[in-house]
Write a structure and sequence with these properties.
Elements lengths: L7 E11 L2 E12 L3 H17 L3 E3 L1 H11 L3 E7 L6 H16 L3 E5 L2 H9 L8 H4 L11 E5 L7 H12 L8 E2 L4
Family: Belongs to the GADD45 family.
InterPro entries: GADD45, Ribosomal_eL30-like_sf, Ribosomal_eL8/eL30/eS12/Gad45
Protein name: Growth arrest and DNA damage-inducible protein GADD45 alpha-like
């Protein structure tokens, strides 16, 4: 079942280049379709499998370091959309997204850094959580960014569904945000 069947309608803006410069025009609505619960569950399963097999890198700075070392092994970049009010994170996310797109790494946005943290960190504080240790974050369970590496064997069905969704939503603006379960 493909993802170009109808999940929801998403408004977007398109930039047009005319002789007077760049202008933004509302161009209506675009549809991207999937079962909202299905992609949420698939993403949750994919992240849990990656965590169990040590294929996850957590944190913005650690993600940047991992991408610098070996971006060829990275399958997916997961970013929390609720942290975009933080200018520093917004800049980091923009750079991470650009690097990922340039290197054919899929990017998915999720609704909550807290939910992402609970999913990947559970009740434990990761050893590499520099933001929490430095006092820039009040919540040890909040996780703004995670990278998922390819499996050593074949990708799981959950991994494939997440990748298919991500590829199908590449042309949709604004990018869809996946609601993670509580």
């Amino acid at each position: 079942m493909g993802y170009q069947e109808s999940l929801r309608t998403i408004s977007y803006l398109q930039m047009n280049n005319n002789n007077n410069g760049m202008t933004l025009h509302g161009v209506g609505r675009s549809t991207l379709t999937t079962r909202p619960n299905a992609i949420s569950v698939s993403l949750q399963l994919s992240l849990q499998e990656a965590k169990e097999t040590n294929r996850v890198t957590c944190g913005v700075y650690q993600a940047a370091r991992r991408l610098e070392e070996s971006s060829d092994h990275v399958m997916l970049c997961v970013l929390a959309a609720d942290t975009l009010d933080n200018l520093e994170l917004c800049i980091h996310f923009t750079l991470l997204e650009a690097y990922c797109w340039e290197n054919d790494i899929q990017v998915i946005k999720v609704d909550s850094a807290t939910k992402l943290g609970k999913l990947l960190l559970g009740d434990s504080l990761p050893a590499n959580d520099n933001d929490f240790a430095a006092g820039r974050s009040n919540n040890a369970q909040s996780l703004d960014c995670a990278l998922v590496e390819f499996s050593k064997e074949n990708n799981s069905p959950a991994d494939e569904e997440v990748l298919t969704f991500s590829k199908a939503s590449e042309g949709v603006l604004p990018r869809p945000v996946i609601d993670l379960p509580e």
